[in-house]
Each structure stands twice: as structure tokens, then as C-alpha cells.
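agent> Task received from the user: take the single chain below, predict its 3D structure, and emit C-alpha cells. No templates, no multimer pairing.
agent> Plan: (1) validate residues, (2) run structure prediction, (3) serialize to C-alpha cells, (4) report one or two observations.
agent> Step 1 OK, no nonstandard residues flagged.
tool_call: predict_structure(input=
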Amino acid sequence: MPMRMLMAMILTALLTTAAAAQAPPSDPVADELAALLAAEAASELGRVETYQAFRPRFEAFVKAHRGTESEVRATLWLVQNTWWLRPDGTMESTSMPLAEDLIRRHPTSPQIGLLTEYRYVFTKDQQESMFERLLKVSPHPEVKAAAHFGLAQMSPPRSADGTPNPHLATLLAEFADVRWRQTTFGRIADARLNPHAAADLAVGKTAPEIEGVDQDGKPMKLSDYRGKVVLVDFWGDW
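)
tool_result: status=success, residues=238
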């Protein structure tokens, strides 16, 4: 064997060993959950049928991996998808015990803030109780901010005398820089407390500024397209 080839093989072996040593250890539980989520996402069944088919699998995963962050994520899937129980009237009675158990056993998990985004599967009383609980037990500003925002949405931005909603005021004072998706809770609270005047939102008026990112993830402003023919698509997902 030529010496050059031998040295190349030795160097390759050393680099491979070093790379393996530096690579983060694989988490088999997280890998198992990722595979389960991928299988659910790839299901060709209808949404209700997919929930019915995968609910037992997620429940089995939760039971087998209690105490892990992967269990938290799997339980959040179960909470979110109780939506499909709405027609038979068992949505709220199923979602709340799951959420209560999750908060009780995983109070410091950064993931439990997602419960505020799934508020549509809870009654208003359940939401209020759950959000107040999150404020008390979570050490994470992201979770606390999400809980304040959830509570803020349960009442008007301002009282009859113009006093700011206390939860929106708290977001501005204490959590203004905490990020939520592509914005911050401070910007959300400010928009709620200081909406555009109705007279400014009329045909013929200059559209208010909108800032965000384009399909390539680059910053953009609506005013960048002034004078151009564009299609503006406002959409949501419920």
C-alpha cells in the first residue's frame, strides 16, 4: 500500500473519530418522538381520522417516557388535537386534565407556554385558571409573557375610562423585548393599546405600515412596495 494512501486513511480515521467525539449524543427518546411526529404529518387520512389513529400512539409514548421534555411535547400534541373531540362535547373535559397534569409535573419546562396558543380547546374559566397558574410556577420570561398575553385577550385593551389592560401594561413594562414568532410581546401590546384610528382605515387612505419578513426570510415593509402593483394576502389558520 502506498505510503500516501496509508497516511490518508489514518488521517480520515482520526478526523472521523474526532467528529464523532464532538457530535452531540443522540437522544433515542427525542428521535422516537420525531419519527412519530413525522409519521403523523405524513398521514394521508383526514384530520379527524389521523387524530383517532395516532392518539393511542402518543398516549403510549407519554406513558413510556414520563419526566422527559419529549413527553411534554407529546402531551402538547394531545392537548392541541383535542380540538377534534369538539363535536362530541368532550374537548374541554379531555384537554384540561392533560394541561393540569403537565403544569403540575413540568412547571419549569419552557414548552408549557404553548398551552396559551391552544387556548381554543379550553373554556374561558379554564384558560384563566391555567394562565394564572403558568404565571406562578414558570421561571421563564417567555412563558410568563405568553400567559400575560393570554389573560390580556380575555378583556378589552382599555377600560371605559381609558385605563390600559393590566396584562398589556405588564407586557410593555416587563416583557417588551421577549420575542414571539417574528415580533415581540411589547410590539403586540402596543398595537393593542394604540390601534389605528378607524378613519385611517378606509378606501383612499394610505395603508398603515406593516413590517415583517418575505418568503426568503428577509425584512420587508409594506411601504417598500408603494407605487408598485402587488398582491397582498392576509391569511390565518384556525
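agent> Step 4: summary for the user.
Residues 9 and 135 are 57 Å apart (CA to CA).
agent> Done.
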